[in-house]
Amino acid sequence: ENIFDRSRMAPKTPIKNEPVDLSYQKGCTPERNPITPVKLVDRPQPDPWTPTANLKMLVSAASPDMRDREKKKELFRPIENSEQSDTPDSLQCDMVDDSTADEFEKQRPSRKQKSLGLLCQKFLARYPSYPLSTEKTTISLDEVASVLGVERRRIYDIVNVLESLHLVSRVAKNQYCWHGRHNLSQTLQTLQEAGELQYGELMTFFQHKEQDMEYKFGERKKETITDSQDRALLDFSEPDCPSASANSRKDKSLRIMSQKFVMLFLVSKTKIVTLDIAAKILIEETQDTVDHSKFKTKVRRLYDIANVLTSLGLIKKVHVTEERGRKPAFKWIGPVEFPGKTDELKGRSPTSDPLPGTQRGARAPYKFCAMGKQRFTRHVSFNSTQPCEGTRRKVSSEPNSPHQERQACIVNSDKHCSKMINLAAVCRQKIEEDTSKACATETILNSAGNPSITSTLSLLPIPGDSDFCVNPLPQAIFPVVQADVPNLLLPHSISSQAPHPSTPAASKTENGNPTLFPNQPFLCFPSSSLFMLCGGLQEDSLRETLPTTGDVGNWSAEAQAAVPPAACQKRNSHKCAWPSAPVDNEEPAAKKQTMELNDVPLSLIVPKKPFESPKAESSPGSGCKSAVYLEAFHPDGPEATDQECLDSQEQEKWSHNNNSDEPFPGNEHISKENANQPLLPQYLYVQPTAGLSSFNFLLSANQAPGAISLAASPLPSLSIPCVMVPSAALASFPLVCSSAITSPLSPVPDGSFSAATSMNFSMSGLASTTPVFIGTTTMVTPKVSPTPSVDPQQPSHSTLHLSPELARSCGAVKLDSPVCMGHPVTLLKLQQPSSAPLTPKSIRPARHEAFFKTPGSLGNPVAWKKNEGNQPRSASSVQRRLEISSSSPD
DNA sequence: CGATCCCGCCACATT
DNA sequence: AATGTGGCGGGATCG
Fold first, then answer.
1. Is the whole model's pTM more than 0.85, yes or no?
2. How far is the CA of A83 from the C1' of B15 (A)?
């Protein structure tokens, strides 16, 4: 061995090794010796070598040397242990060799040489940036550590960051798989998307004021950030992770932090992020409290991450001079634009075309959202959600509706923000996992562009209970949204909902579609509190009520499109505000939304007259007055529509003619119709999108908790596809929809409605308790949807709950309609659990994915079916119920 | 003296 | 219990 070393070492560190081994081993050999090499290098440096050269040398030689050394170690360990003097490493030895202590000291590898960045470079040098797909490179931590001459601990630091970017993935203990940068851009895109959701606003905010205001706003920023963080996004866990189980500690800091950190860059306009800001943002919790120590620790970690990112060539260190002075910062020098993303944006953008409907349809927006998130989310486990929820609730309760508020806060005041932040922070931690899910949800929502929904979510929680929050929100929101929509719509275009009494008729129509049943919707009651109803729509009825599907679709599309992310966010903020803010705000917001968005999507809200239309309308208290109607919106209706298209066509008949692309017109019409509906709405209808043929949900608003049971009854009569309500479950929760309806507002067409809607749900219904979610896959909501963005996460949680199964189901669902997005959760799609996506294993991921994807996935009818199949398995009791009840044929 | 960040203790997770 | 992971922060080094 020695010989070996010598030969190799000779050039680099000739003597050292030998001497060390022989005589000095004791001291020198310590395990760390590996490092020694470095030192060796150093020594040489003095002479000819340049730092770089040394490195190279090391790298090249390292492996062999290391090996030898290791062997040595083993050989000598006994000795070492016994004596272990560990002098400064081999240095001493070196010194000896060299003859001077001084030298030796000098030699000692400077810290830099041992830096993580350098180590990372060496690490990266070992693997091809773009490995052939054929070759699967596995990385053995032990091996690498020994080769690079470092402790394994250091390797973890590197690998964790690389893993966060999906350059590697853990396959087993001590084993990682090298993927290279093939997927880097995709990962970055995903992070960017996620980052925009989480930090977009914040960053924007900051940047505007940033430098000047930093101090001033620092806190706010933090807050905002925190809020924004929401954690939802992060998830990241990688796709691969087989071991889902283990994530607890794992998806923790370094990985998450790394992703967040990257997100900040991607979201930053300047692409420059100062460490302190990043640290603040990343310190979820207490902004104020931020202990110095905590901050300090965070910064340390950021340095670790930054070193790795620097080695990857993604960032570089820079300094920004602010008022205060010069601050360390890092500038993103990696890829900035990602094709994919754009799409999303487009989709979101209001102007963007109406959804094509079909495939894309799936309304891409949601889908994509989901997609991105999926990855991230995957790790998240649903389970966690529950706990989270609890937490969240608490949290939320504390502040007021913090989450939502936060956005608002940003806009508005800090106070709330801070609270929110705190809450958010808490939630995050707890929920992070969930969050991811939530995030997805959020995204979806956002994409859907249903601000209202979002808001709803947030709002919901608030209702008296502390809990409201997050969890339920999404789901709840959905329904709400729908409900809201009408309201909203009404105000605008049609305040006169009443005018369209037609609703009842619509209900009739419903009967017409038996088919729907097959599809059936499902209900999910995530926790007890929520539940969803999905029913096949009866197109007929819907039609009556609704405009043609086409129109609807357009709306939705429009809505979705219309609502750009930003818009959504903003809206959300507004929404957020709502919760805290008085109703008034809401109204306006609603109006705005409607106006802008044409929330209409909901348009469908049809009263479900069938059942109780009478009640619905009149009875405020009674349940959901508004039926939400979710038709599928198929924008174009072409393909996606396929499924739904039919319906849509029918719908069209009944609906207005507004098919025209123009969203507004159509929307308006719709809205009007909707408006009408709203009044009635006893139930919510949700059409599923195409695939489903239709899901309809009915929620009886009124029933609220108890009501639920009622609702059920109605169903039968109605023939509506399904209504699922577990009585028990129901009991506990109020239906959101209904609640909203219930709310005093009810009758009022406009603002009141809107406000009521979202808010109400949560609250009113809630009062009783829990909000109900309707998730449908389909939802028109999109437009309506306000922006969920902020809260989404939270909501998402709730969603999550549902989710696993739901998610699956959802996944199955195609939601063309934007709406779906919003409630991914809801979507559960009960109908069929889509098999495919959701395999158990996939579940997690699937969930997320499905969840998110749902929309997208929705696109594939088939998928749903599959899902359906799956669902059964996975389906929780609730689902089962659903299944049973719905027994969707499909 | 502030910026960096190495180093490795130690807790938690997994085997 | 052993081993794998990785949070965390003391304190050394750099500039």
1. no
2. 32
